[in-house]
Write a structure and sequence with these properties.
The protein has 321 residues and is an alpha/beta fold. The protein has a single domain, classed as Acetylglutamate kinase-like (Carbamate kinase), CATH 3.40.1160. It has 11 helices and 16 strands. It has an 8-stranded mixed beta sheet, sandwiched between helices. A two-stranded antiparallel sheet has the order 3-4. The chain is globular and about 55 Å long. The chain starts with a helix and ends in a 10-residue tail after the last helix.
Amino acid sequence: MLKDILLLKQALPYLRQHKGRIMVVKLGGEIAANVDALDSLASDVSLLVHVGIRCVVVHGGGPQATELSRRLGLQPEMVQGRRVTDEQTLDVAKMVFAGKINIDIISAFRRHGVRGVGMSGVAADIIHASRRAPTEITDEDTGHKRVVDFGHVGDVTSVNTDVLSLLMSEGYVPVLSSLGSDAEGNILNINADTVSSVIAQDLAANKLISLTGAPGLLFDKDDPSTLVPLLTVAQARRVVDRGWLRGGMRPKVQTLVEAVEGGVPRAHILSGREEGALLLELFTRDGAGTVIVATNDADAALAPTTLPWESQGQSKQGAEA
């Protein structure tokens, strides 16, 4: 009993600090596919909403899109954590992102008293995008360069978050899938981490929270004890630019860095599979994952002076998303 009381008292200043603020929560498809993890998330979001925090949820659906593609006889192609999207793969994305996953999330929210509103970035002109031109990329393993046509993949040109703000002001939680369109209405597949980042910036969110299968940013992807709990945005930018991350974690950290550089005070990476991790990160001193803070943040002085990749002189690969 005493322990519970102490935890509640520890949470009180954070409850005051976060009340009325906007938080963008991004979850990957692996979290949405896990019934227990999704139910836990819905419970956590319910608490956030009922203490006066305004939330937007952005989701991807990579594992589900891959599974359905293979069931349909299609071979998924990923390049540096991004999905190559031909006509058939775009149809899969529509079915999975704007369909099954979106409905599963708002259904879980309903069980916990959260008024979720499912939509895609195509709705209400939320996400304006242009089709990505063929792009030269460098292979992570061989260092060889090649030009990749990503197909119906979009790069965000602008966003209109008016409808998201309107919904939040009335107590609803928008649940946004990562599809957008150009001015002609052509639908484009957009990386969900990118969507969450630009939405957080446009809403002037206080936090962008990325829920993944990893406990945070790890120096050694196979060792959870190597969690890096706090980085300044400059340090996180260095981790990305020097190629210390691979796979899905690289674009994830890149978009979190862009969010902080774009005015979001803090960006977080934490496990979406660990029950209560979101609440621990927001309402306790020790937190539960990795936080990237702006250079002028009060906690910036607590960041390590030397990153583990530098101090240990090894080319470790950060945890996969």
